Amino acid sequence: MTTPIALIDCNNYYVSCERAFDSSLVGVPVIVLSNNDGCAIARSAEAKALGIKMGDPAHHLRDLIRQHGIQVRSSNYTLYGDMQRRVVAACQAFARDFEIYSIDETFLDLAGFEDRDLVDHAHALRRQVQRWTTIPTCVGIADTKTLAKLANAVAKKNVAFDGVADLRLPDIRHEVMQQFPVGDVWGVGGATARKLADLGIHTASALRDMPMKQARAVGTVVLERLVAELRGVPSGAVETIAPQRKGMAVTRSFGTPVTDFDGMMGALSQYAMRAGEKLRQHGLVAARFTAFFHTNRHKPDRPQYSASRSTTLHPMTNDSLELIAAARLCADRAWRDGYAYTKAGIMLDDLLLAEMRPRTLFEDDTGRRDRLMRALDDVNGRFGKFAAVTASQGFKRQWRLRSEMRSPAWTTRIDEVPRVKA
Which helix (H) or strand (E) holds 42? Predict the structure, then answer.
């Protein structure tokens, strides 16, 4: 007998987070824009009804925004990340274990709750999340992750389920899968969907009934496991321990194009500092460093140039100052004057737990630098990002992201906490 799995998914998550602290956004069309206020990445139901699609460029929406009074917000990932923590906290009493799949989706292991009416249990969970965070959710329940994901999609689209779909009942599962497009099944990409369509497989139920050997021939072992999951055979339990990261990247588009080397080093230094913080946070070190930057590829009438350079980190390190030195080495090799660069980033590869890193024969004592990095992290953790910076990061940072409509950090900065006057 398999353990039931639930997937709780926050509806219109970014918009819901914005509405939690700004009641003027409730009931009106709202969109949240990507980094640099480039395109729509979240839409309220009212905005979707106006025909706004995911990824629509903001400058194409100006007339629609003006005509319908659409409220626009810059993305506020600090707020969204903190609200996710509160959603997960609200879920903890309703499951044995949980796995955070994305910022707005969490798998729940319902072992130990089988004797309850799990639909009522899921409704109680939704009420708890809404009471703690105001964020509306939908819940899908099934025997496998793939079916739970499918159940959640159905709960969100079909009002008859009232926000909770339980696909453990064979009749309901079969009826739902007969109508569910195969291209919308979790794990079926566009290329695989086209291959399946050529074979006459258009629904989730047809994919479920596909011979396992044929599934492996069409989409390797990945599609074979997917077919098994659609048949109710779990290929992966809820993973309570996050897998170790193999790589890491920090990339950003610039709010203002960068034309000088010092400006580029300011951006790369900041990204290297952030990457070092993340490495230390996860107890990792890196062996390979890559820096890249390029001009705006969507403006072919302007001079174009892109470059990427890599270097080995020896010994492996999570020292931000070492990473900045590597960034300068790569930037020196790749830089060319005369171009307006619009995006840059750094990537770290071959990550390893710090206590497992190979030692070198003539390695210096790193204790002093480790203490310096901890002090740096403590200062920035206590007083906010960039409270302590290196000189190469600079202070003006004209290249930083454009976020002209970002809401306050309602939950993470004491000076931006909402005030109530009585």
Answer: strand 40-43
Q: If we measure between CA atoms, which residue out of 284, 224, 219, 215 comes closest to residue 248? A: 284
**Rounded CA separation 327/321 (Å):** 10
* Ranges assigned E (strand) in 84-205: 97-102, 105-109, 137-142, 164-166
What whole-number distance in Å separates Cα of residue 304 and Cα of residue 231?
Answer: 51
Residue with the two structure tokens 């989409």: 219
Crossing angle of the two packed helices 118-133 and 77-91, in degrees rounded to 10? 140
Q: Using one digit for the tens of pLDDT, what is the confidence trace for 80-99?
A: 999 999 999 999 999 999 89
Residue pair 294/306 in contact (Cβ under 8 Å)? The answer is: yes
Contacts within 8 Å (CB) and 24+ apart, 330-336: 330/289, 330/290, 330/291, 331/261, 331/264, 331/265, 331/268, 331/291, 331/293, 333/309, 334/291, 334/292, 334/293, 334/307, 334/308, 334/309, 335/261, 335/264, 335/307, 336/305, 336/307
Give the bridge partners for 71, in sequence order.
Answer: 30
Q: What is the pLDDT of residue 237?
A: 62
71-74 β-sheet, strand order = 40-43, 30-33, 71-74
Distance CA 122, CA 139 (A): 7
Q: In terms of pTM, does the model score above 0.85?
A: no
Paired strand residues for 258 = 341
pLDDT in tens, 254-282: 878 899 999 999 999 999 999 999 999 99
DSSP 196-231: HHHTT--BHHHHHTS-HHHHHHHHHHHHHHHHHHHT
Nearest-CA neighbor of 384 among 418, 359, 413?
A: 413
Q: Is the peptide bond before 315 cis (omega within 30 degrees of 0)?
A: yes
Q: How confident is residue 14, by pLDDT bands cut at 50, 70 and 90?
A: very high
Q: Which tokens hold the place of 89?
A: 């906290």
CB distance 183 to 189 below 8 Å: no
What are the φ/ψ torsions at residue 342 (nearest 5 degrees)? -115, -10
d(CA 108, CA 95) in angstroms, rounded, equals: 6
Q: How many CB atoms lie within 10 A of CB 140?
A: 28
For residues 327 and 346, is the Cβ–Cβ distance under 8 A?
A: yes
Q: DSSP strand E in 236-374: where?
A: 247-258, 284-295, 306-317, 341-349, 352-353
Using pLDDT thresholds of 50, 70 and 90, give the confidence band for residue 50. very high
Q: Are strands 40-43 and 97-102 parallel, antiparallel or unpaired?
A: unpaired
